[in-house]
Amino acid sequence: MEITISEAAAKIKKANSIIIAPHVNPDCDGLGSTLGLYHALTKKGHKVRIFVDDDIPEAYHFLPGWELFKKPDQKITGADLFIVLDAEPERTGRVNKITDAPILNFDHHRSNTRTADFLYLAPYRAATGEIIYELLAELGIEFDYKMAVSVYAAIATDCGFFRYSNTTEFTMKAAGDLLGYGVRPNIISEALEQRKYADVKAIADVINTIELYNEGKIAVAGADKDIVEKCSSTEGFVDLVRVIEGVDVAVLIKYAADNVTRISMRSKKTDVAAVAEKLGGGGHVRASGCNLEMSFHEARKKVIQALTREMAGQENAD
Ligand SMILES: [Mn+2]
Description:
GO molecular function, one term: 3'(2'),5'-bisphosphate nucleotidase activity
Shape: globular
Domain DDH: 18-155
Helix content: 40-55%
Bound molecules: manganese (II) ion
Keywords: Hydrolase
Oligomer: single chain
Protein name: Phosphoesterase RecJ-like protein
Number of helices: 12
Domain DHHA1: 236-307
């Protein structure tokens, strides 16, 4: 059931032993939100354990306490509350199976499947980090440096460092407030922008694959098996495609495994969450994705078709 932020805060106050987890394939919003809440609740005397069913990318090792994340290897008994951040409980992977505690879910994805016992869903928030900021105020917990860095990084990354359309007055005010606790934006963006030599070289390969469709409104780039094997991360590649003049939707098609292809979409106008949902994925209106169980080339064709159809439909609706 959906609850308010103050009802959520009341549930947290009553819980002694708490488990927190973000989604698999963790991003800075999920990890930063988890750590921000971890530091806050630990300070208040709660017994908190944090789990993620994945490795944590090196780029996020600047987050204070990232090494405290455990893999969900065994059952946890006696937890009072399981807090899931930035996705629905199923997306925490095996963490969802190690505890029977009631689930309290905070999320800003419209595509949330609403399976948690208690859900605070705020699709108008740019990041789950913003929700944590709101939650800590509700809990009456004052920020310290570690909490501020974690929550700032969560917010800043999900709004493209205050450039995306989800950036609001609230986003800027929250971030501004966090700077008051010693956060240095340049240190965080430098840590996040740093790339491996091989990955920067791989950008050239990906850029070379760009093709335009639908009268130049769709730009598609591909990272096939060869490219994926050469580099450690394709994070941010889709944003390089997004800047092309006249392009509404940028797509990155990425080899994930034989017959599994990962699709990432960014748009300026088109509702790409609607497209992702039709293909079994989800996300936000202007940033979404899905995994397709088909070959790289089949997936490429399928996505271009689905997007062209959606764009025609949305134009007719205007
Ligand atoms: Mn997020």
